[in-house]
Design a protein that fits this description.
Blueprint: H1 8-18, E1 26-27, H2 29-36, H3 40-52, E2 56-58, E3 63-65, H4 70-79, H5 81-97, E4 100-107, E5 110-117, E6 132-134, H6 139-146, H7 150-157, H8 173-186, E7 189-192, E8 199-207, E9 213-222, H9 235-246
Antiparallel strand pairs: 1-3, 2-3, 4-5, 4-9, 5-6, 7-8, 8-9
Helix pairs in contact: 1-2, 1-3, 2-3, 5-9, 6-8
Amino acid sequence: MLERDIMGGLAKGLSVIEAFTADKPRQSIAEVSVASGLDRATTRRCLLTLAHLGYADYDGKYFTLTPRILRLGTACLATMPLPQLVQPLLDALSDRLGESSSVSILDGAEIVYVARAAQRKVMSIGLMPGSRLPAYCTSMGRVLLAALPPEDATDRLGRLPLIARTRFTRTDVDAIMSEVAAVRNQGYCLIDQEVEIGLRSIAVPLVNARGKTVAAMNVGLPATQNSVSDLLDYLAPMLSVQTELKALLA
């Protein structure tokens, strides 16, 4: 791909959109400039363009993205066969277990939820298709990192700050890679309150007919009602879904 074929303006606009996160949904021009790496003048023009087109609100100081921005993500999800394939099986799994389950894919150093079947709320934040979480401290994230060559997984861990979200969160790269290696060997991942206090989860890879990991599936449970060893009770039904999907996934 030649550099002259790249639209710089579009790339800058997308960088500005990506600067908004669940932790920082409302930002000033200066804040977006820092987050996107663009100068303030360029950031200002991008933000005002988004506001003019209805993708952002502006109160004179702060910008927030509007629901219109979801059209971009919805269009992407609508063209992906994966959510359509996994949702019925995910719904059946959650109904059978009485617990919430999810499917996600890896995007850089983060996981992106593409399907979810919620039985009850197990996290303080609302999760839905399009939600993102860091890969290093999530069960699905470690499953997806385990599917990569170790050097690639290590490189991705360096793309985000490894923040201790709870007192249980592993933030040392070597310690995380050790966990990833264990996940690769055993074929599943257990997470004990590393993402959020009170949440435990178990995840397995979703592989296609060629054996390539294309996504991850997890079940999340409240730590107050389940021990870490209890999570293994959910492994067999999850592996059953894994087997059923293997023949369907391209």
